[in-house]
Amino acid sequence: MKLLNIVGHDALERNNISLFSSLGFEVQTTGSYVDHLNPNPDIQHKIFKRPLDPLIGTNFNKDLSEEFRRLNPNGYYPGRSRLVLSKEFLDKFDVILLSWITEPMHSYFSLLKDKLVIHQTLGQSDANREVELDLLRKKGLKVVRISEFEKYFPKYSGADSIIDLDIDSDRFRGWKGNEEAMLTVNSYVTGRLRETNFTLYDQIVSKVPSKKLYGGGNPVNPLQYPYILGPISESKLLLEYQSCRAFFSLGTKPCPVVLSFKEAMSVGMPVVTWGPKLGGATYSAHTFIDNGVNGFYSDDPNELVDICNQLMTDFSLCKKISINARQTAIDNFSSKVIATKWRDFFNRLGLSV
Q: Rounded CA gap, 186 and 139, in Å?
């Protein structure tokens, strides 16, 4: 079987290729990984751009890749170029997966209306998007949400299933915590002050001796923000997850929980994040945390400072939390768990995988 993943956000593409390959699909995407082995880093959002690592061992169909590139010789990225699809190309696929993008359902509706088309959310939405999804669901679009907390979006349009984004727990593992540093991964933080609580975060980590923040679109200004270090590849980021003592998850409102939170927990990092008040109505990261057992959350900035500094000095506590954090990630976000949920979803729709 073949699956076409029309990508609207860089964060989803690599994970989806691995996940749906594990279910037996030949996976063709439309973003940086049109060729799994030779990703094109230029086909990314300029704000979130980062170095890319090749994908090895996935179900890659070279003929499909070449056909897509003939249709889109300059690549495709939403809002920057027009997606070109043909009936002959689309007819080769059993499933069309729209990741955080809806536009193809409008421009190619006549070609898609009789196909299994699924919209995969990233946990980001607003009233206008929900109204649009409601109309498209009436036309046959299936919507898969990443969290039940998306029900708090204004004019929430419902879901056909709740399936979180997955983390490869076999790859994201191996925390050692030898470096007494607080790690954070988030993009464009100074441009998303409200969404990330960055101003408060900056005040908190200013009282932590050592910290690092990676992510595209962030200001690399050694005088103002000496701890902001710019974009980082996934392979190098894994080394940071493994070596840094703990992780502070900012989140990005209104997303319930971001990928870096799950990656850090999967590696076994002690994770610190906001509570429900600072996180907001749609924030769910704290619901995966049992305070002091597998991580920490709080709505008290002073308490967050104390927690961060305690983790820097109490390695024994960190090691205890690490074991529980990783198990939480395996139970909730691992590729095996998420693949099973997707398999059950496809089976309910009459597609045997």
A: 36
We find that the CATH architecture of domain 2-166+335-348 is: 3-Layer(aba) Sandwich (3.40)
Non-local (6+) Cβ contacts of 347 within 8 A are 353
- 179-333 has the same fold as 2-166+335-348: yes
Q: Which CATH number fits domain 179-333: 3.40.50.300, 3.40.50.2000, 3.90.190.20, 3.40.50.2300?
A: 3.40.50.2000
Q: Where are the domains of the chain?
A: 2-166+335-348, 179-333
Write the pLDDT tens digit of every residue in 129-183.
Answer: 999 999 999 999 999 999 999 999 999 999 999 999 999 999 999 999 999 999 9
**Residue listed under structure tokens 């009282």:** 207
Q: Output the CA–CA distances (angstroms, integers) from residue 48 to 182, 213, 216, 230, 240, in the order listed.
A: 21, 14, 4, 10, 19
**CA angle 51–325–200, rounded 5-degree value:** 65
pLDDT in tens, 30-68: 999 999 999 998 888 766 677 888 998 899 999 999 999
State the residue for tokens 């949400």. 145
Residue 31's nearest CA partner among 95, 88, 99, 92 is: 99
